[in-house]
Amino acid sequence: MATLTIAKVTSASEPKSLPHSSHVKASPDTKDIIDIEHVPVNDDPRQWSYARKTLTLCIVSLASMVSALASNIQNPSNTLIENDLHATNSQISWTLAAFMLIQGNFPLIWSAVAEITGRKVVYLLSSALFVVGSAILALSKTIEVMIGMRALQAAGSSAFLAISAATMADIYETHERGTKMGIFYAAPLLGPALGPIIGGSLSQSFNWRASFYFLVICGAIIFLSFLFLFKDTYRCERSLAYCFALKRRLASQEPVRRPSQSTIAGSEFSMDRTHEKDLEKQFQLPIIPEETLSATPTPGPDNIRLSIKDVNPFPPYFQILSRKNNVLILIPNGLVFGFNYCLSYTCERTLANAYGYNALSVGMVLLCLGVGSIAGSIIGGRWSDRVVRKMKDENGGQWYAEMRLESSKLAMLWLPPSVIGYGWVCDKHQNAAVICVMLVLVGFTSIWMYASTLSYLVDANPGRSAAAVATNSSFRGTLAFVSAIIAVPLQNALGDGILFTAWACVLAAAELLIIIVIHKGESWRKENEESERKILSK
Question: First-to-last CA distance in the chain?
Answer without folding.
Answer: 29
